[in-house]
TrEMBL record:
The lineage of its organism: Bacteria, Pseudomonadati, Pseudomonadota, Alphaproteobacteria, Rhodobacterales. It comes from the Bacteria. It catalyses: a 3'-end 2',3'-cyclophospho-ribonucleotide-RNA + H2O = a 3'-end 2'-phospho-ribonucleotide-RNA + H(+). Belongs to the 2H phosphoesterase superfamily. ThpR family. GO terms for molecular function: 2',3'-cyclic-nucleotide 3'-phosphodiesterase activity; ligase activity; RNA 2',3'-cyclic 3'-phosphodiesterase activity. Coiled coil: none annotated. This is RNA 2',3'-cyclic phosphodiesterase. SUPFAM superfamilies: LigT-like (SSF55144). A motif (HXTX 1) lies at residues 36-39. A motif (HXTX 2) lies at residues 118-121. Its EC number is 3.1.4.58.
Length: 179
């Protein structure tokens, strides 16, 4: 099963991002119910391994914390996706680090790239065309200074990513509260 560990966005953040997404002039918009912050991507894993992941994460005890989304940017050249940046607070970095450490402890190496917290808002397939890059540039000039009020994060989850013709569907396999 294709899987990942992520923070689901709280309802007020989803509401604000969905309003912003309505103005995005290009790309495939990520469905509001799919908005999340990936802590680590696990790739294809067996059911047995996902059970081990669950057992490794269920004993993780950390405090709830505030998350702030700030700024918009595009990944890639030409752009492959548009995302809202997430401020890398010490609590967020600690959560991500501990999740990766737990997974490393059960033999999952995880991603090698540096953690760059973000929420993907739109995707551009194989990359934005020159015309789309221009329209995206104008959108970023108008909205790139996004800053949402802090949102309380009270948990994270283990998800399965199910790819369909209409786009991905994310099923929550297990949730882990933050105190």
């Amino acid at each position: 099963m294709r899987s990942f560990v992520a923070i689901e966005m709280p309802a007020p953040v989803v509401r604000d991002l969905a309003r912003l997404q309505a103005a995005i002039p290009v790309g495939r918009i990520v469905a509001p119910e799919n908005l999340h912050l990936t802590l680590t991507f696990l790739g294809d894993q067996s059911e047995a391994m996902l059970e081990e992941v669950h057992f490794a994460l269920e004993t993780l005890r950390l405090k709830a914390f505030d998350l702030t989304l700030s700024g918009l940017a595009a990944f890639g050249d030409p752009p492959l996706s548009l995302h809202a940046g997430v401020e890398a607070s010490p609590a967020l970095i600690d959560l991500q680090s501990r999740v990766r450490s737990r997974l490393h402890g059960i033999g999952l190496a995880g991603e090698r790239r540096r953690f760059a917290p973000h929420v993907t808002l739109a995707r551009f397939g194989k990359g934005a065309t020159p015309d789309e890059v221009g329209r995206l540039g104008r959108f970023l000039a108008a909205h790139g200074d996004l800053r949402l009020p802090p949102a309380r994060i009270t948990g994270f989850g283990l998800y399965e990513s199910i790819l369909t013709e209409e786009g991905p569907f994310y099923e929550l396999l297990a949730s882990y509260p933050l105190g």
